[in-house]
């Protein structure tokens, strides 16, 4: 597990090592994982290296609209094609091995494609990890729209449950029954 965390941590991003370790440990027993918001692939690397299955990495690689003048300025400056290229280089071994499948679009636009890709699994994923736009509306919408894609007993989770992101906290409180804390600022629940 330490090797996975080290390789993931070598990719620029905002996820701390205890969070990467939680993702890797959780992914070890999940074969179909949907990640919403992949940025440069730090968390995707941990998920992709650890899962015995596949990670569907959903992102438009534009950066979140409200953060394009701040933390996501790099994506705005480089443009989505160049930024997507960074992700692909960082995840090249996992993409070539079929362990990571990038899906380049908004999270809501990806749902029909994911339903098709998951058809052989009854249309259900084992885990969803939400780390896309951090507005209340976006997090609440992703929880609401992606929960039906998770099998019973699967995990719905996300990043940045902290006072630095009050909208994330509010969306979790209001839309994620029975939520708990994983590693660091990761929240999760198990779907009944």
What is the structure about, briefly put?
The chain is an alpha/beta fold and 192 residues long.
Description:
There is one protein chain. With 192 residues, the protein is α/β, with parallel strands linked by helices. It has one domain: Rossmann fold. The protein contains nine helices and seven strands. Strands 3-2-1-4-5-7-6 form a seven-stranded mixed sheet, sandwiched between helices. Helix 2 runs parallel beside helix 3. It is globular and about 35 Å long.
Largest sheet: 7 strands, mixed
Q: Give the fraction of residues assigned to helices.
A: 40-55%
CATH architecture: 3-Layer(aba) Sandwich
CATH superfamily: Vaccinia Virus protein VP39
Number of continuous helical runs: 9
Q: Looking at the structure, what is the overall shape?
A: globular
Mean pLDDT over all positions: 93
Features:
single chain; 192 residues; Rossmann fold; 7-stranded mixed sheet
Please write out the topology:
Elements: H1 2-9, H2 17-27, E1 32-36, H3 42-50, E2 54-59, H4 73-78, H5 80-90, H6 92-96, E3 100-104, H7 107-117, E4 125-130, H8 136-146, E5 150-158, H9 166-175, E6 180-181, E7 187-190
Parallel strand pairs: 1-2, 1-4, 2-3, 4-5
Antiparallel strand pairs: 5-7, 6-7
